[in-house]
Amino acid sequence: MRKWMLTLNLQNVFSGLYLHAMFLFGSMCVVYSDCTPQQLAAFMNCSRHERHTRNYDYMEGGDVRIRQLFSNTLWFLTIDDQGSIGGTQDPADCNSILEIRTVSEGGILAIKGVKSQRYISMTKAGVLQGKENYSENCNFKEVFLENYFNAYSSAKWTKNGKEMFIALSPKGKPIRGKKTRREQKSSHFIPMKCQEDDKRVD
Ligand SMILES: *[C@@H]1O[C@H](CO)[C@@H](O)[C@H](O)[C@H]1NC(C)=O
Ligand SMILES: *[C@@H]1O[C@H](CO)[C@@H](O)[C@H](O)[C@H]1NC(C)=O
Question: Which regions form coiled coils (predicted)?
Fold first, then answer.
C-alpha cells in the first residue's frame, strides 16, 4: 500500500516536471515578460551555475544555487515583492525563482526570492514572511527525505520541541509552522534546476 502511494506521488511530480519543461519550451516570450534583465540572466544562467556547484551540498563560502521549490502539493513556492509567501502553478512566475544559499554546515541555508530580493523567514509563532533583511529567522535546515523530497525546518524556532516546516497547503497557501509535520505532503519539496536551459545552451 505504501509503495503504491509513493509511486502515485512520484507520478504526480514527474508529470509536473514534464509540464514545466513543456511550458518553458513552448512559450519563452510570454514566460519572461515580467522579468527584468537581471532576473532573466539569473534564470538563464542557472544551468551553467549548476556545473560550477556540482558538489551541490556544503561548499565553503556559501554555495549558491538558483532553484524553484516544487511542493508535493504541486505548487512552486513564491515570495512576492510585498513579502507574502505563497504558491504558483505557473512555472514561469518570476516570484518562484529562488536563490538558495548555504549558510553553515549541517544543511543550514537561506532562501531568497530572485525578484523580490526577500528572504523567507519564519517567526517564533511559525508564520512565514518574506523579509528584506537577512536574520537568523531566515535560516532553515534542509532535510533529505526518503521519498526524494526535501523538507525545510526553521533552524531557529521549534514549537514544544517539534520542528516547524515551510509548507504549502493543497491550495498553495503557507501553513503555520506549528501545524506542520515532517511526514506531511505539504512540507515536501523538490528543488528544481533549469534543465530546460541546459538543453538550450548545449
Ligand atoms: C552566472 O554564473 C556564474 C558562475 O556560477 C556566476 O559567477 C554569475 O554571477 C552568474 N550570473 C548571474 C546573472 O546570475
Ligand atoms: C534593512 O536594513 C537596511 C540597512 O541596514 C535598513 O536601512 C532597513 O531599514 C532595514 N529594513 C527593515 C525592514 O528592517
Answer: none
Specify the residue with its C-alpha closest to ligand 2, atom 3.
133
pLDDT, mean of residues 79-96: 91
Q: In the chain, what are the domain boundaries?
A: 2-201
CATH of domain 2-201: 2.80.10.50
Q: What is the pLDDT of residues 154-163, one digit of tens each?
A: 999 999 999 9
The confidence band for 11, taking pLDDT boundaries of 50, 70 and 90, is very low
Ligand closest to CA 132: 2
Least reliable range by pLDDT among 14-28, 33-47, 75-89, 134-148: 14-28
Nearest CA to ligand 1 atom 1: 45
C-alpha cell at 83: 513579502
